[in-house]
Amino acid sequence: MDHIAKVTSKSMVTIPAKIMKKYGIREGMRIKFIEGETGILIIPIPRLEDLSGIDGQYSALIIEGIRELEAEHRREAKE
Fold first, then answer.
1. Residue 16: Cβ-neighbour burial (10 angstroms; 0-12, 13-18, 19+)
2. One domain, residues 2 and 27
3. Interatomic CA distance for residues 50 and 48, integer angstroms
4. Where in the sequence is the domain holding 7, given as residue range(s)?
5. What is the Cα–Cα distance from 62 to 71, expressed in whole angstroms?
6. Are residues 10 and 34 in the same domain?
7. pLDDT tens digits for range 41-63
8. pTM above the 0.85 mark?
9. Domain total of the chain
């Protein structure tokens, strides 16, 4: 299913409600944009608190991975 959004003069885009609901995107969440050869991939990044309890066996690894990703983003932003 296709969804179309308009870019505002301030470079903002409203994510369609159906997409937000389907992927659990909520106000205040961070979104990662990955450039590819054929387009842009948009990935929602859940807050650490939202991951609590999704899989107790692997939660420590998940949280560690997210922290590493955030640290990588900070390093890239400084460059």
1. middle
2. yes
3. 5
4. 1-44
5. 14
6. yes
7. 999 988 777 766 666 677 778 78
8. no
9. 2
